Amino acid sequence: MSSNDQRPKITGHRSVETKYMDQRNELFQALKRLDRRSFMKVSAAAFGSVAASGLVTPHSFQPVNVAHAQNRKIEPFTFAYISDSHLYKRTLNDRFVNSLMRAVDDVNSMDPQPDFVFYGGDLAQLGQPEELELGAQILKSVKAPVKMMVGEHDWYLDMGEKWRDLFGAPNYSFDHKGVHCVVLNSVVEKDFWTARKLSPMDRMKTVAGLDNGVQSPFSVGAEQRAWLEQDLKGKPSSTPLIVFSHSPLYKLYKPWNFWTDDADEVQAILKRFQSVVVFHGHTHQMLTNRIGNIHFQGFLSTAWPWPYAPQGLPALTVQMGRPDPFNPQDGCGDGSVTVHPDGLADIVQNLWNRNPVTIARTYTASFGKKDKPEVPSRQSY
Amino acid sequence: MTVAGEPTKPQKPGPALTPPAQPAAAETPGVKKETDVAPGGGSLHGAKPMPEQLTQLDRLFAKTKASQSAPAGVDPEFWQALVPGDNAITPERVALGRKLYFEAKLSKDGSVACATCHDVTRGFSDRRARSEGIGDQVGQRNAPITLNAAFFSSQFWDGRAATLEEQALLPIVNPIEMGMPDGAAAEKAIASDPEYQAAFKAAYGRAPNYADIGRALATFERTLIFLDAPFDRFARGDKNAISSDAVAGWALFNGKARCVSCHQINSSSPIGTDNRFHNIGVSARHQDFEKLAKSALQALAKDSSKETIDQLALQTNLSELGRFVVTRNRSDIGAFKTSQLRNVGVSAPYMHDGSLNTLWDVMDHYNKGGETSLYLDGGIEPLALTEKEIDQVVAFMFTLTDDRLAEDNAAELSRQKQLAASQRPFRDENLATRKVFQFEARVSGKR
Question: Residues of B numbered 287-316 whose beta carbons fall under 8 angstroms of chain A's beta carbons: which are they?
């Protein structure tokens, strides 16, 4: 479980996540009892049912798909992303609502349709139920299956209660066409509120602020790292991994929380895999990095673009230029990702009213020597 | 040359705003005697006969003489940068360009001159939604006024020509405008005329030729500078030069109505354009951009010459892609050049397809946040302007017409006012006041 020890315990019911973990453990136990031949048989049968069900809720089939990944070639596939919509109630700020709807329209008009649409976190601005419900309502219009990730703006009013009600567990994994995908809650903060006797809204507003010196840096946390290790256990290093985290899974700029405090520990867990691509939200900008075997790409926001951090910008980043102040959607956008048989991915950053920028996998694979993306024009139109 | 893209059927013009002129047969013999006018050219396709236009042109320039130097109020160095080095303005070149502007012999059937669609008596346009060329064929685009065209940094609605020289030649060879098979044919049409031989010799020191036709026309257009309006007197300090409504409209123009985002009026753009291309949602009303963009790319892969682009823009449904056909950049899909604001009162109907009949319609369009598409400029937002505020911005816009066209401006104001009182087809208060959002209907599948 992601999270934080100080989180109010939900008693009386087992979360989807807990049920899922139990189910997983059960399956692991069962698999241990099988010899290899029988294992393959079970896998094949289960794979058939996965294929038939269209992989909408892949969680339960995950261990079986692992076997599939070992034995079948990876098929290239495309998913779209939408991220960081920061919705207020529509009576307070309709621009962000309209922008999220524009993104939905965007991914709905993709032809061919993406296999799924990944939401990168920060659906809400202040974690309020009506903000999250509004977002959930709009995302229902997405034609492709939607996969959700949590951001700090969704979480710190009620410590994720409403979000989990709407979308389920904040951390989970699934397999898709031979690639293992892991979704993390990377915005776990240490308790800064109890001692200060902060109300839930004060806590939320503190986290939503930048540069305030009160909140703690984000982290994945020991509990979730253990879960991750368990999740990856037994997977051959040739398994291509895609990891989603809201904050960048490296240390970029601490005062703005463009940062994950235990990034090194998480990277250590991912290190043995040949190809790992991390996609993150939070930074609202084109952001590219590579650390060893791990390739990082940031998502655009639908709400507003952040400026680049004053220091620590990764050398591979292709900067998206200064947004046009007369055009409130400039520097915003959505995008799509095509995952190739080598497990690496091309990302298309669909900057609204500018030309889409493609960052090819060969660019990060060659440490920037090959296929340098065209720098987006300074002009927005 | 074959043009891909789905051709649109040549259409008869819609309801004309001015009574269509009679066909050639109705021309009076007296008209044809006018030596300055090519025989047969004139009153076809709804244009006023050329002699009437010439009389009007003389009247407009009775006080202000076209000069070689920078027009009044325009910085001389800035002006110099607008005139190409190889085509300095000389009286001979102006005279030749003027003659060519009214020359219907430059068209295949002798029925169309520049002045057919850029009629001096109709604000240097044709008061039609979309223009009519040879064989009564109607194109896809509205004819912009030729006044002040020299200040644009690119020409045509999609900027497909970089200079006036280049622009002036393309209609001559466009199959549905003037229809000449090529430049040589246009050259041949006038080359044996002794008057032209003398005029070209005087202007460029050589025999009539196609490139110099473009140069001379461009030079003539550089004399059509109409920048002396009531608003300019107001800007210079005469507070009574425009009405209090227009003053309030000016404030809205720079504030709540957001016009100034693209229509800056300043010394480097005295005509009120940013010279850029925006999708403000005019073509979104009836377009599947994705599908169009794909077929445009296929067509341009085969041939992307400027003549092909010209034909795609005027003759096929790819016209609605606007700037995209020129650049093939996705960010240019459905984007058109920011029009000038000068003389906007006399240049109805509005937009690249002439789909908005009055300036009230224009305000209604912007007020509701344009028409939604994925390519809508992010700066286009619902404005929540009240009726009074709309009237004020419109009042302001009617102060931008040059004093020489004041009579026409007043007539247009009253005509548009009357029309707007009876129909406001683009008015949508729910969208304007954000009770309904632009993308809502699309996303929920209702549209």
Answer: 290
